[in-house]
Design brief:
By secondary structure, the chain is an alpha+beta fold. It has three helices and nine strands, in the order αββββααβββββ. The strands form two sheets. Strands 1, 3, 4, 5, 6, 8 and 9 form a seven-stranded antiparallel sheet that branches. Strands 2-7 form a two-stranded antiparallel ribbon.
């Protein structure tokens, strides 16, 4: 089995390019190794990879962070709830982050991304796999979000 690919630098670069265009202020805090691919946030988006690389991304965030993302993606001043348009905006946000990050990986292989799956709930613990993963922690305005991943494959 391959080791987990290190994507931290690609994730940071993607966030630096994409988030400011959406009016979202952020900063990278740290990356750490995890024993499982998981998230304990109220808003979670899962993207699966297949073909050239296999694995998953899990983006976790607070409702407050989700509302900031929705505002940025829809060009609205303020959003108060997560309706169907808001859900689609969150999925578009995560698909863009994952797609642009993987485009930076030096490979000529075709990588298929699944449509994002939104999982929400209070006191939720989302565990995708019991394989080693990496988790990047970011600050967004006055709240946080994470991007966890377990991507395996040969470049």
């Amino acid at each position: 089995m391959s080791e987990v690919l290190e994507l931290k630098d690609h994730l940071i670069k993607t966030c630096e390019e994409f988030l400011p265009r959406k009016g979202i202020r952020f900063s990278f805090i740290k990356e750490k190794a995890e024993n499982t691919l998981n998230s304990g946030d109220p808003i979670n988006l899962l993207v699966g990879l297949s073909k050239g690389m296999e694995g998953n991304f899990v983006v976790g965030m607070s409702k407050k962070a989700a509302l900031y993302v929705i505002c940025g993606m829809t060009n609205q001043e303020e959003v108060f709830s997560i309706d169907n348009i808001a859900r689609n905006s969150l999925c578009d946000f995560v698909a863009a982050i994952c797609g642009q990050t993987l485009a930076k990986v030096p490979t000529k292989k075709l990588i298929s991304l699944s449509s994002p799956t939104l999982v929400t709930g209070e006191r939720i613990c989302l565990m995708i796999s019991k394989t080693p993963a990496r988790k990047c922690f970011f600050r967004m305005n006055d709240t946080n979000f994470t991007i966890a991943y377990n991507i395996e494959g040969e470049l």
